[in-house]
Amino acid sequence: VGSLQRHPDVAQAAVAVKNSALCAYVTVTSNVDEDKLTRHLKAQLAKVLPKYMVPNTIMVLDRLPLTPQGKVDVKALPETIGQTAQYVAPETQTETDLHALWCAALNVEKISIAENFFTVGGHSLLAIRLIGCIRDQFNVELKVNDFFDHATVQDLAEYIDLIKGVLTEPEADYQFDGEF
Fold first, then answer.
1. How far is CA 2 from the centre of its chain?
2. What is the pLDDT of residue 125?
3. Containing H/E element for 14?
4. Closest Cα to residue 97, out of 143, 148, 137?
5. Rounded Cα gap, residues 108 and 120, in angstroms
6. Which of 10, 58, 77, 100 would bridge 24 by S-S if both were Cys, CB 3.0 to 4.6 A apart?
7. Strand bridging mode 57-60 / 21-28
8. HSE-up (13 A, CA, CB side) for residue 15
9. What is the pLDDT of residue 91?
10. Rounded to the nearest 10 degrees, what angle do helices 153-167 and 93-106 cross at?
11. Any idea what DSSP says for residue 27?
C-alpha cells in the first residue's frame, strides 16, 4: 500500500485478494488517464517489489469503501474483472513438464505459462510441495525464494534450464588427460 501511495496522483490505496488474485484499489488526487496510471503503477511496483507481490489488477475507484470504524471494508471492494491475460502454451520440454506439474498441483486442466502461480490459486505451502516435485522431475534444488522470484512456468522453466545448463556442462571439457 505504501508503494502505491507514494505516487503523486494516488490519494488512497488498498490491497486485497479477490478471485484468488492480488488486487490493488486506488483513488486519485486529480483527473488522470486511468489506464496510463495503472500501467505506470504496475511498472513502478515491479521495480521495487518481488513479482508475487505485484498486483494482477489495479482498479481506480471514486472512493474506498469504509467500515463504521473508518477502516477499508475489504468485503465491499469490487470483484475484479476476469483474467485479462491470454493463454500462452508451453513451447520447450521444460515448460511442458513444469506446466503439467503446476496443473496437477493447482487442479486445473491448463494454465498460461505467463500466469503468476500466486495469482491463480497457488500459495506458499503448495509452492513448497511443488519444489519437491520439481526436484524429483528435473533433478534440481530450488529454494522457496527461487519459486517466488520465478513465479510463472515460463520464468521458472528458464531458470531451471539455466541451472541444468550450468550443472550439466560436458565432462570432456574437464577431464584430466594425465599431462600438464
1. 19
2. 87
3. strand 10-18
4. 137
5. 10
6. 58
7. parallel
8. 12
9. 93
10. 130
11. E
Radius of gyration of the CA atoms of the chain, in A? 21
Which are the contacts of 3, defined by CB distance < 8 A and separation ≥ 6?
A: 44, 45, 48, 49
Per this entry, what is the length of the chain?
A: 180
- Whether the CB-CB separation of 151 and 126 falls below 8 Å is answered with no
Beta-carbon count within 10 A of 44 CB: 15
CA–CA separation, 158 and 96 (whole Å): 12
- Characterize 104-117 residue by residue with b for buried, 16 or more Cβ atoms within 10 angstroms of its Cβ, and e for exposed: ebbeeeebbbebbb
pLDDT, averaged across the chain: 83
Q: Please list the ranges in the chain whose pLDDT falls under 50.
A: 82-84, 167-176, 180
- Residue 19's alpha-carbon distances to 71, 80, 93, 136, 176, in angstroms, are 22, 7, 31, 31, 58
Q: What is the pLDDT of residue 98?
A: 95
